[in-house]
Amino acid sequence: xxxxxxxxxxxxxxxxxxxxxxxxxxxxxxxxxxxxxxxxxxxxxxxxxxxxxxxxxxxxxxxxxxxxxxxxxxxxxxxxxxxxxxxxxxxxxxxxxxxxxxxxxxxxxxxxxxxxxxxxxxxxxxxxxxxxxxxxxxxxxxxxxxxxxxxxxxxxxxxxxxxxxxxxxxxxxxxxxxxxxxxxxxxxxxxxxxxxxxxxxxxxxxxxxxxxxxxxxxxxxxxxxxxxxxxxxxxxxxxxxxxxxxxxxxxxxxxxxxxxxxxxxxx
Length: 267
Ligand code: FE
Ligand code: FE
Ligand code: ZN
Fold this sequence. Notes:
The protein starts with 20 loop residues before the first helix and ends with a strand. The chain is globular and about 50 Å long. It has 267 residues and is of the alpha/beta class. α2 links the parallel β1 and β2. The protein is built from seven helices and eight strands, in the order αβαβαβαβαβαβαββ. The site of one fe (iii) ion has 4 residues, from loops. The site of one fe (iii) ion has 5 residues, from loops.
């Protein structure tokens, strides 16, 4: 069985990952992958935070991905980005979309307000001041808006607020279903993101319970390691494949110039 395409990887250009695109590509080839995608953190029009690409580095990013494509002609390498969804920031995403011939965008919510990224370890203390349920609600409201925006092919790590293992005491099923109904209607795919296995939550994003609800709606999926180091390429993909197969998934999707290509898992 060959490993599915790894559709979520970063590079040193986002300033908190290591490795050149060619290093990730070399690792992917060594593991026998047929396809990968670079999805580094999208720049903002002006300085925004310490963990994303700078706008002036965007052309370098594209060039470096092109170099990797030339150096590894037998590996399909997609050009993409993980783009932050912020309410009111849609026009900027549209501008980014026009800058280069991207294969797809992952839309991710990290910020639940203008200033708080729920996954930032430097802002972990903010969780103490807030009711987890209220944070998850704010997060999923935004995630629904991201899905509905039509700007993204894939929704990144859909239950990211669990990263530090802080969970609402109340049942979240209705909240998940509300989001998944929007996701279904808007046609986005969900990023089965194995980085969660390496965090305090020790679980793939999204959780099996969440993905059961997604599977019932036949929402398409992609696989992503969310690598921030070449060694992490396709890490945990065996577990991810096992999880989604157990839920009845036989296919996942790839994207070429925004066109969805349904692919059998294992092919
Ligand atoms: Fe992310
Ligand atoms: Fe990421
Ligand atoms: Zn990152």
